[in-house]
Amino acid sequence: MIILDQHGAHERILYEKLLKNVRGTPADLPLPTVVQLPDSLAPEVWNFEAEFEALGLIMEPFGVEAVRLLAAPETVTDSEGAFLGALEALAGGEDLAKSLACRGSTKFGESLTREEMAALLREWSATEFREVCPHGRPIVKRVALTDLLREFGRT
After folding, report:
1. Would residue 38 count as lying in a domain?
2. Which pTM does this prediction carry?
3. Mean of the pLDDT values across residues 108-134?
4. 56: domain range?
């Protein structure tokens, strides 16, 4: 039996895609998303406008400490999380691809349809380093039938 961490798997998929091309093609969001900016980062957001556009994150001002996201790359499932992750990485000089992949991926425990699960497995199996997420945590756990039978007192 194989147990897969869906967040880690999706994070690995996005990370490897971002390493190949960090530029994102913006896709209009069905509904614009208002993102409240952390107090410490609100003044910096407009310093990175060009970088956000290159990433495929299109925004406009929305009050003093918020922006409204109008578009994000299609691969991002959490546009607000991806935006905040990018902002934190850009402001802090961190690994942008790692931050975007983590914040923009499917969450642990989030319900997926069968089609989404199948697509996740297909894309994950095509990644180069499928055993660990970009942070080094395991993505997959294999449980042998003999181990499983032993857990239930069967031999």
Report:
1. yes
2. 0.69
3. 93
4. 2-142
